[in-house]
């Protein structure tokens, strides 16, 4: 069956996820895949697990109603509606979706975020300087052979030196490791470069986008000064934030969440994300 695209009015097959004419997402597409986030909290976990840069760099704000220009976001309004928006460069807001369907709203921002990741990766690759191809002369090949021979001859010494360097670095490293920390009476959890705070009122854990004060405290002191090994509330390991480090799925009451992430949406360079490269003048 064919349906009309909401954005360009072209007739397309209803089973397609995107319009082949304008790229718009289709509301009739199946949005119940188990490996996609369906709630705002799951989308936060997806964002964190993919090691994306902080939200002030990507300009994707999950669970927040940001008023400033150049921002994508999703939040739940006071009336109970889920709102997906884009604030343009001039501050004008374009509402992509507003309604009661959280899964649909989350998918809208999820698909836009994935597309932005792909664009940013392509943009970063285009900025890398190309390396000229040089023809190896006999002399250069001879030099390479000598270097390799020297390396093989002294490999034991080099290996020993590497181990000594790693040992010294480990002795001097006061950075936090995975686990619970307590500061000023509040409980926190650290894993994979991110901090999470415990809300005793709701017995829940939340991702901390602003955790500089913890980094300053922990990195300047010995981690054991703040590390704790007991926690009276909900275990962090029982939340969707927790990554066990394996490719097995995390099972909750209503979904399975796979931490063996697809490589095309994972991020590997915090420095190369350029939010100014995003298209901020379009509605989406």
How does this model look, in words?
By secondary structure, the protein is an alpha+beta fold. It has two domains: 2-127, no CATH class; 179-275, no CATH class. Helix content is 29%, strand content 20%. The protein has a five-stranded antiparallel sheet with strand order 10-9-8-7-11. It has a four-stranded mixed sheet with strand order 3-4-5-6. Strands 1-2 form a two-stranded antiparallel sheet. The radius of gyration is 24 Å and the shape is globular.
Topology diagram in text:
Layout: E1 2-4, E2 11-13, H1 40-49, H2 55-58, E3 60-62, E4 71-76, E5 82-87, E6 93-99, H3 102-127, H4 138-153, H5 155-172, E7 179-183, E8 186-191, E9 194-199, E10 204-207, H6 212-220, E11 227-228, E12 249-251, E13 256-258
Parallel strand pairs: 3-4
Antiparallel strand pairs: 1-2, 4-5, 5-6, 7-8, 7-11, 8-9, 9-10, 12-13
């Amino acid at each position: 069956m064919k349906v009309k695209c909401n954005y360009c009015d072209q007739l397309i097959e209803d089973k397609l996820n995107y319009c082949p004419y304008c790229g718009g997402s289709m509301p009739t597409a199946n949005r119940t895949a188990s490996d996609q986030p369906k709630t705002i909290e799951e989308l936060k976990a997806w964002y964190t697990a993919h090691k994306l840069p902080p939200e002030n760099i990507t300009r994707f704000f999950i669970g927040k109603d940001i008023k400033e220009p150049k921002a994508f976001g999703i939040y739940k309004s006071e009336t109970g509606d889920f709102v997906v928006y884009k604030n343009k460069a001039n501050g004008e807001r374009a509402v992509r979706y507003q309604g009661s369907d959280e899964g649909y709203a989350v998918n809208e921002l999820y698909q836009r975020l994935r597309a932005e990741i792909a664009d940013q990766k392509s943009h970063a690759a285009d900025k890398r300087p190309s390396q000229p191809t040089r023809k190896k002369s006999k002399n250069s090949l001879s030099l390479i052979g000598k270097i390799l021979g020297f390396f093989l001859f002294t490999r034991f010494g080099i290996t020993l030196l590497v181990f000594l360097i790693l040992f010294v670095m480990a002795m001097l490293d006061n950075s936090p490791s995975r686990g619970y920390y307590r500061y000023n009476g509040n409980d926190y959890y650290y894993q994979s470069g991110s901090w999470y705070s415990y809300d005793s009122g709701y017995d829940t854990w939340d991702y901390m986008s602003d955790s500089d004060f913890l980094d300053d405290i922990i990195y300047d002191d010995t981690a054991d000064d703040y590390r704790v090994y007991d926690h009276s509330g909900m275990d962090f390991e029982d939340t969707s934030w927790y990554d066990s480090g394996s490719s097995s799925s995390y099972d909750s009451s209503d979904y399975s969440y796979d931490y063996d992430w697809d490589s095309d949406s994972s991020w590997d360079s915090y420095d190369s994300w350029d939010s100014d490269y995003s298209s901020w003048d379009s509605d989406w």
